[in-house]
Recover the amino acids of this structure.
């Protein structure tokens, strides 16, 4: 069964890692509450700087930051659009300077239709 996936790449200051974890846990709760199938946050561990492109380069990663890759899984594009509309309208998801532990202007994101999906 193919799914639809939203992917995010985010630069997070090392000093804000715990705050980011808290925000991510809340976001995951909200996404799942509105029907997402899966919510995953991944902290970069082996993400080398490339010569032409890389995860760090894509978000203009600074020396005091860590890159995160995150994704949310849905049944299909229509399901994603329904869930996303509810998530974005939820007051818990409204960004403000006091709850944003990263520079959202440097986050990259997009929706993806799966073409191959395998599990062990």
């Amino acid at each position: 069964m193919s799914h639809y996936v939203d992917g995010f790449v985010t630069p997070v200051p090392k000093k804000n890692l715990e705050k980011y974890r808290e925000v991510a846990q809340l976001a995951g709760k909200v996404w799942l509450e509105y029907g997402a199938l899966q919510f995953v946050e991944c902290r970069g561990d082996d993400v080398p700087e490339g010569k032409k492109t890389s995860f760090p380069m894509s978000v203009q990663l600074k020396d005091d930051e860590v890159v995160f890759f995150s994704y949310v899984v849905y049944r299909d594009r229509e399901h994603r659009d329904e869930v996303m509309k509810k998530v974005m309208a939820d007051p818990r998801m409204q960004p403000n300077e006091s709850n944003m532990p990263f520079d959202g202007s440097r986050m990259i994101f997009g929706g993806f239709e799966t073409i191959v999906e395998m599990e062990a």
Remarks:
- Residues 66 and 92 are 24 Å apart (CA to CA).
- The mean pLDDT is 94.
- The domain at 4-113 is CATH 3.30.70.100 (Alpha-Beta Plaits).
